[in-house]
User: Which sequence fits this backbone?
């Protein structure tokens, strides 16, 4: 079934202004105008972020819904897919254990795309991340993971192990941001089967 509703979840310190989010939004608007697109600015609290997302997508049709997530957004995307049963998820250099990895970022942070904007990453947010962890899907073929071996933030081997059984593309080199994401848009959109 074609994807009619598409959710995009950005990463830690990121926003809907990320290069990947903007490329996806432009592609959907240009070639798939019937697809309902939503890319929210997520609050720093993981619990609050997922409560907001869950409330928004509660009426979306799971059979034709998909989620794309980058970095921490990839971790969130796995939670969304497990919770909603949505048809497909695309994971872009997804965080596998953000409770471990983000514990060292407790305190005041700056937004990546707007350095003048600050937010506080509270100690309890680490526990909120632990609470959102979900086991691998029974049907990992419903997931597509795009990983870069040159990711300077996360270990691509850990990601590949977490999403074993998914449609997996591992790119040599590259970076955490997947700076050449435009080259991979066709593969991503092909997997999503956008309406």
Assistant:
């Amino acid at each position: 079934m074609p994807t009619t509703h598409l959710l995009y979840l950005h990463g830690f310190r990121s926003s809907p202004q990320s290069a990947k989010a903007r490329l996806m939004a432009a592609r959907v608007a240009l070639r798939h105008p019937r697809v309902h697109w939503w890319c929210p600015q997520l609050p720093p609290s993981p619990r609050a972020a997922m409560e907001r997302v869950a409330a928004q997508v509660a009426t979306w049709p799971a059979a034709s819904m998909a989620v794309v997530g980058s970095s921490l957004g990839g971790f969130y995307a796995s939670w969304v897919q497990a919770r909603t049963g949505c048809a497909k998820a695309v994971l872009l250099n997804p965080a596998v254990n953000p409770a471990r990895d983000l514990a060292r970022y407790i305190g005041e942070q700056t937004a990546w795309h707007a350095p003048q904007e600050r937010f506080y990453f509270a100690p309890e947010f680490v526990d909120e991340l632990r609470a959102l962890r979900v086991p691998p899907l029974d049907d990992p073929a419903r997931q597509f993971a795009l990983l870069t071996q040159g990711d300077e933030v996360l270990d691509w081997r850990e990601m590949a192990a977490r999403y074993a059984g998914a449609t997996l593309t591992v790119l040599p080199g590259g970076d955490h941001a997947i700076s050449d994401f435009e080259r991979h848009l066709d593969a991503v959109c092909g997997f999503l089967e956008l309406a």
About this structure: The first strand starts at residue 5 and ends at 9.
